[in-house]
Amino acid sequence: MGARFVRGQRHPRLAPGHGMSALASLRERLRALLFRGREERAMDEELAFHLDMETQMLADAGVPPEDARRRAQLRLGGVEQCKEQVRDARGVRVLEDLGRDVTLAARSLARQPLFSLGVALTLAFGIGATTTIYTVVDGVMLRPLPYEEPSALVTVGAISGAGAQAAPGVLALEPISLLHYQQLRERAQSFEILAAVNTRRLMPLSRDGGEEEVPASEISSDVLRLLGAATPALGRAFVPEEYDSPWEQEGAVMVTYEEWQSRYGADPGIIGRTIGRIRGGRFPAIVVGVLPADFRPLEAFAASGERPGYYFPAAPESEPDDRGWEQWYVLGRLKPGISIAQARSEVERIADDVVRESPDAVGSRLRNGSRYRVGLNGLQAQTVGASGQVLALFMGAAGLLLALAAMNAATLLLARSLQRTTEFGVRTALGAGRARIIRLILSESGILVIAGGTLGVLLAYAGVAAFLRYAPASIPRLNAVALDGRALAVAIAVSLGTGIAVGLLPAIRLTRRDPWGRLHGAGRSFAEPSSRVRALLVGGQMSLALVLLAGAGLLFNSFVRMQTLDPGFDDDRLLTITLPYKDAGLGEGLPLWRAWDRVLEELRRVPGVLSAAGTTAAPFQTPAETVRVQLPDDTSTTWRDGIAGYAITPGYLGTVGTRLLAGRGFERLDGPDTERVALINESFARTHLAGVEPVGTILRLTENDYRVRIVGVIEDVVQRRAEDGFRPAIYVPYTQYNAAAFVVAIIRTTVDADAVVADLRAASARLIPARSPDVRAMGDLMASTRTSPRFQAILIGSFALVATLLAAVGLYGTMTHFVERRRRELSIRIALGANRDGVMRMVFGRGMRLTLAGLAIGMAGTLVLSRTLTNLLYGVEPNDPATLLLVGAVLVVASATACLVPAFRAISVDPVAALKAE
Amino acid sequence: MGSEHAEVLQGTLEMLVLRALALEPMHGWGLAQRIDVMSRGVFAIQQGTLYPALQRMKRRGWVKAAWRITENNRRARYYAITPAGERQLAEARSEWERASSAVNGILGWRRGTA
User: Fold this and answer.
1) Contact B88 A13 (CB under 8 A)
2) Cα B100 from Cα B94, distance rounded (Å)
3) What is the pLDDT of residue A169?
4) Nearest-angstrom CA–CA distance, B102 and A113
5) Contacts 24+ apart (CB under 8 A), A204-210
6) A454 and A544 in contact (C-beta within 8 Å)?
7) Is the pLDDT of residue A672 over 70?
8) Of residues A267 and A201, which shows the higher confidence score?
9) From A41, which residue of chain B is nearest by alpha-carbon distance?
């Protein structure tokens, strides 16, 4: 009766007021766990004392001593039972059992260190690769941009003629004119704020008495507020007057946080300092503030990876000539509740009105005849842009590698557990329950997964560092990439998932069969059902390895094709030096071409220099100018857009090795005051002058009524990148051009180019003491345009290499086990006179059947998946038969090698010994 | 049957142990004897009940244990009540009084008449 009440009495104890005792309880449990041995000894002594006292009492009461102990024992009841209850009362039963399982598992793994290390390493590769790529993906794509409410931020721009997409759902946008931007600001209702950033430009920056040009840009008054960056890290933001300040005076500049850290050592004294010149290099720039960290409004637009370190207040209204110039990137913050689609249709509507009402505002595109359209993207989507596809590819590859590693580990664990059927049979027969055996197996896989996961995270640290070091600059936001808690959580989740997947399979398979059969047959006659699972696992690994290898093969093939593209000239013994012509004693009052002559003369004197010529941009550099031209027959509104413009010295053709196809090259006589002339390339002639004799044709260049007569046609030469193909270009004599800040000297040497570099540097230093010149071999310049494809090929290639090795190891393990299990069968065959060729064929046949089945499935998968590579490949189809056959052959060879040792082991079976062992 | 009896004991046991320890620290055997005496022989506590209970109470922080030398010069583990144990005892006692007076009321006995 009273029992109920008395038991009900427990509840108040559990009330939250008893936090103290909860803590004490935890401490007590911990102590019980840590000092289990001591607790056990204490308990033994205590119970022995109890028995002694009881005996003593009985003896004192007159019971004969020989009887007293027995009677005391009877009275007290079962000692062992009591001990068990005390142990239970310690409340650490589950933990103790776990500890015992783990100890047992660890001991068992330590007996096969190579196996354990192999499995842990396998898992480490999978987990490490996944964690590395996830870390990058998280930093670049998943994390919100470091601005206030980044999801409401959008970009507005003109859609290029072709309407290309930068990435699925992301329009490729180009800058718009100031006039159009002003119209947008006046009319658009969807935005809380609209602001504009100028395209990147160069600013001459004072440095060590000399000067260098650094990337800089201009921002309109609302950019800081729009991005939620209105509070500078140091100093102040621009004030309204600075945005309206007259053009012809000194101006304010803000330095990015990163630039302030790296170039100025975070010196707070930078505020108020004059650091360089702005406005065409005419007026001093004075630092007013340091921008907050991660201020990169241009990152969404400029894929080049160069980030401006300096921002000026845009004072565009004072540059009336520039109003129609399409050089403004527009950023917007949507009003709450306005969707991207709504805003998109509004800006499209406004653009149509602007085209109708003030065609000046839309620049060249209208006059070009094609319809002028604008588009709008989410800022984050546009920032990630095309890198999203590449990263998704990396993520997919890492996922495949993880799946392969998990299958590989499962194969190895399964093989091991099957070898232990006898051990588990004994354990089961001795009373270990199915749950206990499963727990033991799971403990083993748990230990391996924890080891693999830990190694994997270490690998990921190295992997992320390597990724950041070698990644092409075109991937945005790499500064936000860090292996932190989020990535670790993913690593742990991945490890757990892998652990369960890998550990459960052998556990289930093992405990299914009866212990008696296992003891009896010692596991030898039960091969079939589990070998089917293993065949699936091995075949699956081959499939995954093939997919990865095929992807790597295609990317490498494409990269090699890019490498072997004809650049249109011989890059051997060719160097470029980029020098500012206006520096120290060269620029003052000298026209551009005189300065160039001085530079080139000095360089030509260097021993080993065969010839030196000047240009505004070398091959494999971005052309300094993109011009529009009009042909004589064109109507006044028709412009031919996007033609690369170069100014060159007469020696250029000879130095680069470009042949003249028609007419003449430039000569000394083409001076500043003679007739304005130009050369065009083959592509220009083909694209724009089909059926016309080019030489003698007069072209109109840009808006100013600048006319040139074509005097010659030259061979095509690569512009920015070889894989873009040859494009139209126009060349003017350097004497008739006066807008470059730099001369790019191109130098052909008579000896190995490296041998001349030091002398060239010395010569440059004589010319311009304060600057260390940018000397680069043409070969390096070429390579630098291919960092992205090379990086992709190397990354996927290294995944594929690991995948191939793992798949081969998996096959090797399976075949070794196959031979082990068939020892008896093999020995009978050999005893009965089977020839060794036959036995070998049997082993190879089995291994190859697995491989080929896997390859067939992998090939089907590859054909589906490789299509995702289309955009990344140059000159190779995603289903390129040669590549696929080659990687298939690589896997066949790897598999054959993996079968070799087991096959030799099979034929070296000693029939007598093997049968005796039965 | 026996288990029902044990349950009654187990529920009350902790309260009885705390009450006994509130007098002075003592070892397990002494505690069993003391409760036997205090309950006038009604509650004979088995070691299989006592020691697990002590272990539980130690875990909850109601008692603490220390090895000492008995008057017969033997080493024994002594248990002492802690402040948390004293609070628990007070709580358990008032709960018990409430419960038993209610039971007594139901059974028709007046307080003090028994």
Assistant:
1) yes
2) 10
3) 78
4) 68
5) A204/A276, A204/A277, A204/A281, A204/A580, A204/A741, A205/A275, A205/A276, A205/A310, A206/A274, A206/A275, A206/A276, A206/A277, A207/A770, A208/A770, A209/A770, A210/A583, A210/A584, A210/A768, A210/A769, A210/A770, A210/A771
6) no
7) yes
8) A267
9) B77
Chain A partners within 8 Å of B53 (Cβ): 89
The DSSP symbol for A152 reads G
**How far does Cα B17 stand from its chain's mean position?**
2
A13 → chain B, closest CA residue:
B88
Which residues does chain B have within 8 Å of residue A6's beta carbon, measured at their own beta carbons? 8, 11-12, 15, 96, 99
SS3 A879: coil
Closest CA–CA distance from residue A103 to any residue of chain B (Å): 26
What are the chain B neighbours of A10 within 8 Å (beta carbons)?
11
Nearest C-alpha in B relative to A30:
B59
Measure the CA–CA gap between A808 and A894, rounded to whole angstroms: 6
C-alpha closest to that of A116 among A409, A385, A321, A393: A409
- Contact assessment for residue A267 and residue A257, using Cβ atoms and an 8 Å cutoff: no
Q: How far apart are CA A679 and CA A660, in angstroms?
A: 9
A897 Cβ under 8 Å from any chain B Cβ: no
User: What band does A163 get if pLDDT is binned at 50, 70 and 90?
Assistant: low
> Residue A225, Cβ neighbours under 10 Å: how many?
15
Predicted-assembly ipTM surpassing the 0.85 threshold = no
B-chain residues within 8 Å CB-CB of A24?
59-61, 84
Please give the model's pTM, rounded to 2 decimal places.
Answer: 0.71
Report the DSSP beta bridge partners of residue B68.
B76
pLDDT band at A19 (very low <50, low <70, confident <90, very high): very low
Give yes or no for a contact between A682 and A716, defined as CB atoms under 8 angstroms apart: yes
Is residue A131 very low, low, confident or very high in pLDDT (cuts 50, 70, 90)?
A: very high
β-strand pairing of B63-69 with B75-81: antiparallel
DSSP characters over A826-857: HHHHHHTT--HHHHHHHHHHHHHHHHHHHHHH
Tokens of B107: 């059974």
Q: Are B11 and A9 in contact (CB under 8 A)?
A: yes
Interface test with A, best of B4, B29, B34, B57 (most A CBs within 10 A): B29
Q: Of A137-141, A646-650, A774-778, A865-869, give the lowest mean pLDDT range.
A: A774-778
Please state, as a whole number, how many other Cβ atoms lie within 10 Å of the Cβ of residue A604. 16
Mutation for B interface: A86, A88, A90, most B CBs within 10 A:
A86
Residues of A in contact with B46 (CB under 8 A): 76-77
- The packing angle between helices A93-110 and A434-470, to 10°, is 70
